[in-house]
């Protein structure tokens, strides 16, 4: 410990310290001010990429993965109720936003029923997340299905980086209480493991008149990870999680029998488990391969839908260097999905139990045209899905780095989203028609012959390091969608008083354009400003059957973070966030500006106390209304102002 | 939407930062009105589990620790130390010869390694050389630092070196794990290092034991 101060003393006062003067022991103790650390480099990627680091997550005070995603420029994150989020990039947001691919440690997390992500099921110990990579724009070649508007890749730390013990606990008005514990140790010569458990209880959101509703949320989760190394040329990872969630829900009236139109409160449950094994190795020629398999099971029991899903996925990738200018990658993947639903009046699947296969192959070549200056990436993916037709998804990217401080990139790609089982096989009660026709039930009806949605995307980006202290990253894009899966009005059935809304491939093209800007200013060694702004424009004629589609994303979004490392091991983070209004018929949400603050104090190394206050500007604000695809009055839950305290102890 | 009496103020759609004072007074007012935070739901009798009372801390006026090293400087300083401690076979590095420090990659460590050129490491002088990743003469180097841009192809570079007497270093995450000599990693706001003894032994180099004792991880013991 004393060394730490000696080294500071030994540095010459008014010139930069001479690196010759430090011993290894001193270097090991030396702390890099976290506010002074540059964002992890994405300057090498010919895509709109951003990395949210563990430090960013900790300093934001986020207690869930979707909340942490608010840190990334260009991502739309809106909370619908205490446990439900709408997350997407570049438009078409919604509770079941289906044009975004989300991966956790290589495992695809989405529900095959609706192609969306149940964000309340995706969790891990927040402290174990190493980073979250966010790629906006199509990423289908490398990543997989549904990577139409973006990819979110959540990567947890390796077990060797989570050695020892960690205990976190805290609570507040919204975070009623939470606790987590992790233990890590060594196995064998070169291997390590960790186990963790966490639990939390979150309070409900409020209605517009300030009363608590019924959307409280409780979770218990545990898991493990083992990383072992057999030799320089062979490594493996085995990891898994089990969880149980309890989510309060207010089910809207969907009954054709008494009591009519009376919402009722229920507690819904979800249990799940997953197990993943990955083997990575190097071959004699320096090429690298990866073979991965996982099994994922989720069981829901909810008022609207009870079902169980099993997913088995096998993935192989091989990266080779046929000569020094080519970095060639190819791979194949296979997935088996089985889902069995208990049909209810709200949702019924036909057939109610189905097992099906998906498969894909891809190849991508990264070609260096001029050393360290010009790079071309060409790739394509061939995807075969049970629903929809076979899809070819090609991609070309060019990256020009005239000098280390500037880089310009451009890309064109075609990507596809295959229809979900819900769109091809489910009857969904969407509620009753607007007054005065409330006796008419609106039913979403499937179309088994749906084709995949396609996008043609063109992007251009410019990253630059203006000075040592200031850097910016600008991306502009233009997306052209065809065959979007939407509703068309069917013929009103007067005998059952049912108005069908049938899924179909919309023939009209929809265009979205936007600009995303992120900037960083290292004002002082201990003070940093980061900001971002995103502009999105959706060009599409008004469609009475799908009025929400164009209005589900705000036109303007921006945030500003001010991070400070103060004396006495105090860290202060202030975040200002603005989201423009959502202006659709069934989805009117005012623009809002919120303010979060976090104050943390580390009295001893390894022990941190923090107070986090969120949404300080107003007692409550709505972010998104949970309406279905057609304009029905959704339940209007608002995010309350909140405060919580947190203790984390590493030992 | 009715406005009840509990609705003290609404600042959504804030127009300009000039409202900040108004917002602050609004916060105070609504706090005094006991509705700063939404009322607790009645579903649980348990009150807040933990809500540690944090006093407002008055910030001292002391300055922060004056000059400290950047991450790149710390890594360069590590490399300088390794250059002092590692022992090469006498036929590779005769007494008085220069230590050839080869660097592969684009904008490696913000140019901090270049600053080591001409410095004395023990009785040898360090000589900085920038090389291409496909350079066939990399096995003449004594120290070889692979920058972050080499992430995708460093295994090829390592394999091509075979057992040449080169100490390979990098700040790529899984460098030592995949057969590199020493990797410098950023962990919890500090830079730590990992050693893989297998390539170091095969290259006929020797690292002092104390170094291994303080390494974060030692592979291939």
TrEMBL record, chain A:
Alphabetic keyword roster: Cell outer membrane, Membrane, Receptor, TonB box, Transmembrane, Transmembrane beta strand, Transport
Gene Ontology CC: one annotated term: cell outer membrane
Membrane topology: Multi-pass membrane protein
InterPro entries cross-referenced by the UniProt entry: Beta-barrel_TonB, Beta-barrel_TonB_sf, Plug_dom, Plug_dom_sf, TonB-dep_rcpt-like
Domain TonB-dependent receptor plug: 42-151
Subcellular location: Cell outer membrane
Superkingdom, natural source: Bacteria
First-listed, main subcellular location of the protein, grouped into a coarse class: membrane
Gene3D superfamilies per UniProt: TonB-dependent receptor, beta-barrel domain (2.40.170.20), TonB-dependent receptor, plug domain (2.170.130.10)
GO molecular function, one term: siderophore uptake transmembrane transporter activity
One BP annotation, GO: siderophore transmembrane transport
Every TonB-dependent receptor-like beta-barrel domain range: 177-616
Entry similarity comment: Belongs to the TonB-dependent receptor family.
Listed PANTHER family: BLL4766 PROTEIN, TONB-DEPENDENT OUTER MEMBRANE RECEPTOR
Official protein name in the record: TonB-dependent receptor
Organism name: Methylomonas denitrificans
Automatic annotation (TrEMBL), chain B:
One of the Pfam families matching this protein, by short name: DUF4154
Stored InterPro entries: YfiR/HmsC-like
Domain of life assignment: Bacteria
Name of this chain's protein: Transmembrane protein
Protein species of origin: Methylomonas denitrificans
């Amino acid at each position: 410990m004393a060394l730490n101060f000696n080294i500071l003393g030994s540095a010459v006062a008014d010139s930069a310290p001479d690196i010759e003067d430090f011993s290894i022991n001193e270097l090991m103790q030396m702390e890099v001010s976290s506010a002074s650390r540059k964002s992890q480099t994405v300057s090498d990627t010919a895509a709109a990429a951003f990395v949210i680091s563990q430090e960013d997550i900790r300093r934001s005070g986020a207690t869930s993965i979707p909340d942490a995603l608010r840190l990334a420029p260009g991502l739309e994150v809106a909370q619908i109720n205490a446990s439900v989020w709408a997350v997407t990039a570049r438009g078409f947001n919604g509770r079941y936003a289906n044009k975004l691919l989300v991966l956790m440690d290589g495992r695809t997390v989405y529900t095959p029923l609706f192609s969306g992500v149940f964000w309340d099921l995706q969790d891990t110990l927040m402290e174990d997340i190493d980073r979250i990579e966010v790629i906006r724009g199509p990423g289908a070649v490398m990543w997989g299905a549904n990577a139409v508007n973006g990819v979110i890749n959540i990567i947890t730390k390796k077990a060797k980086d989570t050695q020892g013990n960690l205990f976190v606990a805290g609570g507040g008005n919204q975070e009623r209480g939470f606790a987590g514990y992790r233990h890590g140790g060594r196995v064998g010569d070169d291997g390590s493991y960790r186990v963790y458990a966490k639990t939390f209880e979150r309070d409900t959101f409020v209605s517009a008149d300030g009363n608590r509703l019924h959307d409280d949320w409780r979770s218990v989760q545990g898991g493990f990870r083992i990383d072992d190394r057999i030799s320089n040329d062979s490594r493996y990872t085995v990891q898994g999680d089990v969880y149980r969630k309890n989510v309060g829900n207010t089910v809207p009236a969907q009954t054709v029998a008494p009591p009519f139109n009376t919402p009722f409160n229920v507690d819904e449950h979800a249990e799940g488990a997953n197990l993943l094994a990955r083997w990575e190795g190097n071959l004699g020629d320096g090429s690298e391969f990866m073979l991965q398999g996982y099994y994922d099971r989720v069981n829901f029991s909810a008022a609207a839908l009870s079902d169980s899903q099993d997913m088995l996925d096998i993935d192989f990738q091989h990266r080779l260097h046929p000569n020094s200018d080519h970095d060639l990658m190819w791979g194949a993947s296979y997935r088996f999905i089985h889902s069995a639903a208990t049909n209810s009046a709200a949702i019924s699947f036909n057939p109610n139990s189905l097992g099906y296969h998906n498969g894909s192959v891809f190849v991508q070549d990264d070609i260096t045209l001029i050393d360290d200056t010009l790079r071309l990436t060409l790739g394509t993916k061939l995807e075969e899905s049970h629903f929809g037709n076979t899809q070819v998804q090609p991609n070309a990217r060019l990256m020009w780095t005239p000098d280390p401080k500037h880089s310009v990139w451009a890309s064109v790609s075609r990507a596809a989203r295959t229809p979900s089982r819900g769109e091809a096989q489910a009857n969904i009660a969407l509620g009753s028609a607007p007054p005065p026709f409330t006796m008419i039930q609106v039913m979403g009806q499937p179309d088994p012959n749906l084709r995949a949605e396609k996008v043609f995307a063109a992007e251009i980006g410019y990253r630059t390091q203006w000075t040592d202290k200031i850097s910016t990253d600008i991306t502009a894009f233009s997306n052209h969608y065809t065959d979007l899966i939407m509703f068309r009005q069917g013929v009103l059935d007067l005998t059952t008083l049912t108005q069908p809304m049938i899924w179909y491939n919309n023939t009209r093209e929809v265009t979205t354009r936007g600009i995303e800007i992120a900037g960083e200013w290292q004002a002082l060694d201990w003070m940093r400003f980061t900001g971002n702004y995103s502009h999105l424009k959706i060009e599409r004629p008004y469609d009475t059957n799908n009025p929400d589609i164009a209005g589900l994303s705000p036109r303007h979004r921006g945030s500003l973070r001010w991070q400070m490392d103060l004396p006495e091991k105090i860290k202060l983070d202030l975040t200002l966030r603005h989201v423009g209004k959502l202006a659709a018929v069934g989805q009117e949400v005012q623009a809002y500006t919120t303010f979060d603050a976090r104050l943390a104090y580390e009295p001893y190394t390894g022990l941190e106390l923090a107070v986090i206050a969120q949404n300080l500007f107003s007692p409550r604000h709505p972010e998104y209304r949970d309406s279905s695809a057609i304009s029905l009055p959704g339940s209007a839950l608002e995010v309350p102002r909140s405060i919580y305290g947190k203790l984390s102890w590493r030992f | 939407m009715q406005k009840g009496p509990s609705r003290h103020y609404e600042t959504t759609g804030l127009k300009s930062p000039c409202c900040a004072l108004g917002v602050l007074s609004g916060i105070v007012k609504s706090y005094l009105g006991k509705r700063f935070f939404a009322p607790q739901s009645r579903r649980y009798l348990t009150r807040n589990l933990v809500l540690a009372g944090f006093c407002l801390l008055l910030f001292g006026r002391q300055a922060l620790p004056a000059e400290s090293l950047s991450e790149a400087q710390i890594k360069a300083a590590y490399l300088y130390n390794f250059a002092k401690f590692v022992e090469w076979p006498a036929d590779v590095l005769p007494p008085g010869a220069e230590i050839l420090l080869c660097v592969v990659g684009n904008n490696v460590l913000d140019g901090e390694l270049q600053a080591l050129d001409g410095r004395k490491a023990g009785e040898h002088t360090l000589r900085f050389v920038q090389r291409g990743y496909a350079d066939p003469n990399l096995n003449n180097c004594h120290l070889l630092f692979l920058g972050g841009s080499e992430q995708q192809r460093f295994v090829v570079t390592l394999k091509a070196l075979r057992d040449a007497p080169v100490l390979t270093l990098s700040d790529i995450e899984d460098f030592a794990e995949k057969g590199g000599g020493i990797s410098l990693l950023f962990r919890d706001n500090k830079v730590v290092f990992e050693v893989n003894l297998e390539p170091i032994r095969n290259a006929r180099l020797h690292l002092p034991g104390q170094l291994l004792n303080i390494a974060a991880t030692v592979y291939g013991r």
